[in-house]
Specification:
The protein is α/β, with parallel strands linked by helices. The protein has 15 helices and 13 strands. Helix 6 links the parallel strand 6 and strand 7. The longest helix is centred in the first third of the chain and has 27 residues. The chain is globular.
């Protein structure tokens, strides 16, 4: 008898698509009957296409992708303040409620899974589960009410007291089987909370670099000079990723002249695209100091990308959550240049994953690059990798998820 899991994921941009891919495939491989409900327009996203292609080619278990239109208008941009938070979360809560009612009789799920619980994390605390009496599991990524208590550098979060109360109410939901979080400080913050006991678990983002290609060959693959050092910025290329600051540092006279930068990921903002066309950036590209791969990166390409890198850039701006890029770098044994703020900075310093910097200071970036390259050369001389905190493998994370979904 198959264990039936109903997954709701409206979107595939950013981390949503890759997360859904490895989670859904992992469950299907472990004997689950997996039904994913998403928006019709989302099925055209490369990650969704890759998901169905993988399922078809591998012949894994039972996996269905169902495109269902939203019966209500979904938020199209940032919604600020209390009214924005309530409006956004109420909208997605209603969407999941409608989708659940539309598909539950056909699927008859044993459990509902939300790979991105933050769509309506606090509304569940206010209104209860949108999934009736069906057990459910969620993965939370964005709570911030605990930051100050855990010495995470970040602005004082809005509505922190309200969010903490509603989060607690969500934990009290009788049908909640497990709440996973990729936020290590949050898991530590809740470790001694009676209401969280047995329900909240730290769920590190997995990485699967068991073996990497030879670095020089990987650099050639992406058009970069094999004899030079390389800093990798991976994922959607946006202002939030600190791409402006990284390129300003690269162009500065103080920057190490033997180091180049590779931007690997779709350029998502017109302003960044315009900057890449400016004369000073074109000079960097024409001289081989800057490589740009402006497209969606397939999962199969990731090992070569991280193999090519000497350093991985996570000097993000205004980003206070964790990042899977940090853990991929750790798995690959590549040190990071990270912002001081947020969970990124907290984990980088706590686990010795690289250097934290102010991305806006070109001088500080240059010093940190020299420091990391010096440490890397010393490590290579001693025939060892850069010390790193190793996240779980994809298989281990899939096992953990499957176990949580089937627990009573």
């Amino acid at each position: 008898m198959l264990f039936r899991s109903l997954i709701f994921e409206p979107h595939a941009d950013g981390h949503h698509g890759p997360y859904l891919h490895w989670m859904a495939i992992g469950l299907a491989e472990r004997g689950f009957e997996v039904t994913i409900v998403t928006l019709p327009e989302t099925t055209a996203h490369p990650s969704m296409q890759a998901l169905m292609k993988t399922a078809s080619n591998a012949g894994v278990g039972s996996l269905h992708l169902v495109a269902t239109a939203a019966p209500i208008a979904l938020p199209s941009g940032a919604m600020e303040g209390a009214a924005g938070l309530i409006g956004r979360e109420r909208t997605y809560w209603r969407l999941f409620r409608v989708w659940y009612k539309a598909h539950t009789d056909r699927v008859r799920p044993d459990v509902v899974f939300l790979p991105y619980m933050d769509y309506c994390l606090y509304m569940i605390g206010l209104r209860g589960s949108p999934f009736g009496s069906t057990p459910w599991v969620g993965l939370a990524m964005r709570p911030s009410f605990h930051y100050r208590s855990m010495d995470v550098l970040a602005p004082r979060p809005a509505l922190a007291g309200v969010k903490k109360t509603l989060f607690s109410r969500t934990l009290h939901n009788r049908y909640l089987r497990r709440l996973f979080t990729i936020d290590e400080p949050l898991a530590n913050y809740l470790v001694d909370t009676p209401r969280a006991s047995g329900k909240v678990a730290f769920f590190p983002e997995p990485a699967g670099f068991v073996e990497l290609p030879v670095r020089s060959e990987a650099k050639r693959k992406f058009g970069m000079a094999p004899e030079r050092k390389l800093i990798l910025l991976y994922g959607a290329v946006s202002a939030r990723k600190g791409v402006v600051e990284l390129l300003r540092a690269l162009a500065a006279p103080s920057f190490p002249p033997t180091v180049d930068v590779l931007l690997a990921g779709k350029v998502t903002e017109p302003g960044i695209r315009e900057m890449l066309a400016e004369s000073w950036v074109r000079t960097l590209r024409d001289t081989g100091r800057l490589g740009v791969i402006d497209r969606f990166i397939e999962l199969a390409e990731e090992p070569a990308l991280f193999a090519a890198a000497n350093i991985v850039w996570v000097g993000y701006r205004g980003h206070y959550n964790s990042s899977g890029i940090l853990l991929q770098a750790a798995s690959a044994g590549r040190p990071v240049l990270a912002c001081k703020e947020g969970v990124l900075g907290w984990q980088t310093e706590r686990h010795g994953l690289g250097q934290t910097i102010n991305p806006a200071s070109s001088a500080e970036v240059a010093i940190a690059v020299n420091t990391l390259l010096g440490e890397q050369m010393e490590g290579e001389t001693r025939n060892r990798r850069v010390p790193a905190w190793h996240p779980p493998s994809f298989s281990e994370a899939q096992d953990t998820l499957a176990q949580a979904l089937t627990e009573s």
